[in-house]
Each structure stands twice: as structure tokens, then as C-alpha cells.
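sorry for the late reply, my laptop died twice this morning and i had to redo everyting from scratch. anyway the thing you sent over, i finally got around to it. pasting the sequence first so we're on the same page, its 357 residues, then the predicted structure underneath. double check i copied it right bc i was rushing
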Amino acid sequence: MPLIIEGARVPPRWLQERNSRPLISPDAVREEECVRLALINNMPDAALEDTELQFFDLLDVASGDAVVLLKLYSLTGIPRTDRGLRHLNSFYFGLDELWNSPADGIIVTGTEPRQPCLKDEPYWSSLTNVLDWAERNTISTALSCLAAHASVLHCDGINRHRLPDKQFGVFDSARACDHPLTSRIAGRIRFPHSRWNEVRANELASCGYTILTQSAAAGVDSFVKKKKKSLFVYFQGHPEYGALTLLKEYRRDIKRFLGCERETFPTMPLGYFDHAATKLLKDFQEAGLSNRRQETLALFPEAALVRGLQNTWRSAAASVYRNWLEYVASKKAETFSFAAMSRAGRVRSTVASGDRA
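ok and here's the structure:
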């Protein structure tokens, strides 16, 4: 069953990706037969539409035979260009719409931090309002990277720790416990990471979080905690990333170095490039260090690199999100079943009262 974007606001790039598959109206879907999701996409303008497609594609694959209705939102307070604002105004809804819309689950992306302390970010109040609302009004909430860090800080006062270098690449993780969200994953669990900060296992465990997967090289990968009504699911990494996302980020960081926006040449993403690609990039690094100017970026061997890149984490990502969607669907079905039994009980009670009358 294809993913359905609600509100008649379907980004054109997704329509192209669908290969002309027929559109299904949300009105044709019964409430008890679907999972309603809100995607709160907070990525900067340069990655906004790519992030949409990454989650659309992942949810489309993970949904299987389930019907997933998806509605797009974004936080206020995130700096936007005119182009970004036009895209949001065309395809996204404001948070006022979220407060009044049913959502079985929400996905909250991260964004590029601008302040040393997350509480000083201009969108902090907007984000914490979403987190507080999600605890009371959703079955489950999935949080990525910075959104995960913000949640544990807001809810439990757990601060993130600055890393000596960017945690950047594709890392192997191991299951830290048996949990429905990590069941039926064949082979290795490996996900991309792209972050300068981390939250640590001992601090999470002391506040009641359960670590699901952990990497010897990258630290905590995913973890969960039940908060009021909602199961909060946290990813320090990015299961949703496409095959080329880390390459685009690496090229962006190189451009910033060449433009003197950062002091050091960026570290190459680990576990991502093969031997031949690594050799090309080392040669380019030498050129960039010896000739530090924007024009050097024209020598970046992008075409040769793209040919060798594969999404080696897609199977694990689809399994995790399929397990998550099944969890949300099963809890929703329990609610509908309980409501049906309650209605039946009231009918029997009414009939019995009539008989006695």
C-alpha cells in the first residue's frame, strides 16, 4: 500500500519518485485501518526536500500492506530563505493544525545547531511544546539526532557531550537487549551518524531509558522510554539517510573549509567509501590544503564517488521502522477494540434496563 500524503499537499519530487502510481484519497481509508503520522521536518533549507524524500521512501518501504497517512509540519523559529518558506507554505502545516489533528505517531527530525546550549536555540519553546503534546496525544514518538538530544535534556535534564571530532560515517551496532523494535533484523545493524555531540549510556540508564542498540565506535545508537501515553523512540543516528546523503554533507563541509567558514579540513566519513574512493578523496584533500580557495571545489571527484556508493543500511532501517509502525498499529487496534467493547457493553446495559422497565 503506497504512502499517502494528507492535506492535498504532495511535494512534486515525491510524485516523480512514485513512478505514476495511483493516488489514493485519505477519505477512502477507514480510521481503524490506517496509521496517522506527523512528520515534523526541521532540517535546514539545503536538506529540507532531501529529508522529505528520505522519510517518504523509508516509510513507503516499511509500511508493507499497512496504510500510512502522513502530514507535514515544521517548527517555528528555524531560519529560512525565501525559497524554503515558499516550500513550507505550499506543502506544510503549522503547529496549530497539529494540536487539533489526530496523530497516532510523530517523527521529529533534527536540525543544524547554532548555539552551544540547545535551550538557547530560537525554536526551543516550539520544540518542547511538541514534545509535551506528544507525551499526551500519541502512541509513539520517533526522534532523530538533535531532536533526541533536545528531548532527553527537556524531560530528564540529560546534557549532551561535545565530541573531539564529528561522529561521521556508517557504524556497526549490536543489540543491547531484546525488544520488539529491533526484532527480525537480518544481518548487521548499521546506521549512518552525523553529529558533534552525544548522550551517554550510563546517564540514559540512570534516568530509566532502555538502550536498544549500541556501537563500539559510535556509542549509543538507539534507545526508548515510555513517557505518559507515548513510547519515545530515539535515534542518535540517521536510519532514514539515502545512499548519497553523507557524500553531500562531506562536500558541504569541505566547501565551508575552502571558504574559511571552518578551521580544519573535515574528517572523511568512516565505513562509507571503498578503497578507490578513499584514495581519490585523500588526493583531493592534499589539493584543498595546498590551495585553500572556493575554486578548488571544482576538482571534487563527485561523479566517480557516486558510482561506488550503496545504501548498505536500508534493510535494517526498513526493519526498524516496520517494527515501529506495527507497534503503533497494534496499540491503535487495541484502543479501537476496547472502544467497541465499551459501546457493546453500554448497548447491553440499555437493553437490560429496558427489559426491567
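Residues 245-306 form one domain.
thats about all i looked at so far, will dig more tmrw
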